[in-house]
Amino acid sequence: MDSIHGHEVITFIKESKPQISRHNLEIAISKKFGSESIFHTCVLNNLSAADLIAFLERAGKLVVRNGISYINSDLICDDE
Predict the structure, then answer these.
(1) Which of 20, 30, 31, 74 has the highest Cβ tally under 10 A?
(2) Number of domains in the chain
(3) 67: left (phi over 0), alpha (psi -120 to 50) or beta
(4) 80: in domain
(5) Is residue 16 assigned to a domain?
(6) Total-model pTM
(7) How far apart are CA 2 and CA 76, in angstroms?
């Protein structure tokens, strides 16, 4: 199975209409990319959806306001 770059998930979150609640974020990612999908970032590999979400939150790239998930575009790297 190919690993999916976190940038694809970030784009998905940014472009989702309606916006995704933090509560439903892992479910939405699993529906979009598959429940068995593996993710990677520019620095980490072999992440589950939950692991990727936790990483994005710790890095300040994913913020939650009023229960809704937002991407902090200022902190997204340019590497693809």
Answers:
(1) 20
(2) 1
(3) left
(4) no
(5) yes
(6) 0.90
(7) 22
